[in-house]
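2 proteins. here.
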Amino acid sequence: MLVNTFRLALLSTTASFAAVQQRTFSALNQKSFPALVQEIKATNKDIHYLSPKDLHSLQTPTSQQQPPHVIDVRERHEVQATGTIPGAIVLPRGILERDVSKFIKQSDPRDVVVYCAGGFRSVLAAESLVRLGYGVAEGEAGDKGKKKEECPKVWSLDEGMDGWVKNGFQVDKDGKACK
């Protein structure tokens, strides 16, 4: 009986020590949201960035290039308040990973542009898409036989919807295009 009591005390002490150690480790590695976004921008080379003006010009299809898929990762209340970029797929950040394949297949040859309100959450969304296999080359779970520069890319829209509106580009409200 004494041995079992000793084992229980030892296990309890070990578990407490592990919990304290985990909290200490977590505290040392905590980041702010902006710091996390900056870290992803600096380290993930599979995410590309474009301005609202660049996206606007890409949305005009040419014979050589189809317009990109555009995903709005803002929450529904944000979309209802300001509208969307015309043609955008509304997939809030909380369901993006779960539902993106319902709209865009990983083998789709078109680029994917994600945007939020100000250009920060879209970086996290772009990282998730890359981790799911969008915009990565052969040897990284991408299309076989394609070089990295031939693969579709994942883009994050700098300045997000705020930048789009600031530039005076068309906005789609309730399924109707507005300016």
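next one coming up
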Amino acid sequence: MVDTDQISCELVVMRKKTSLMSFSDVVSHLRRSSRRLSSMPLHGATAQPMWRRRIRGKLFRSTLLIVAAHFLFWFPYNFAAVVTYVNIDYKEFIAMHVYFLNDLQILITIVNPMLYAMMK
């Protein structure tokens, strides 16, 4: 796969080899190099191969899932700790539901390997 920077470098090298390139030479060189880039659709100002965009999208999704799972499973436990620290009256109420919070901590250890397995 050829990168656009490599194409421009090739043009500079060709320009240095020959004192002056004709417009038709430049166009024919770009056409030949565009055939090599045909599997690489343009993305913004730079050309990126499709597989690279797919990996980045998949990586972003899996990272987002891992962070969201971590937040969802640990937030109730941390929220209960902060509420208990702020107001001691809620300590009895939270003590009744502490088993649920502990179950969430155990559940995240089961969910995490599944999320990491989805990355592959």
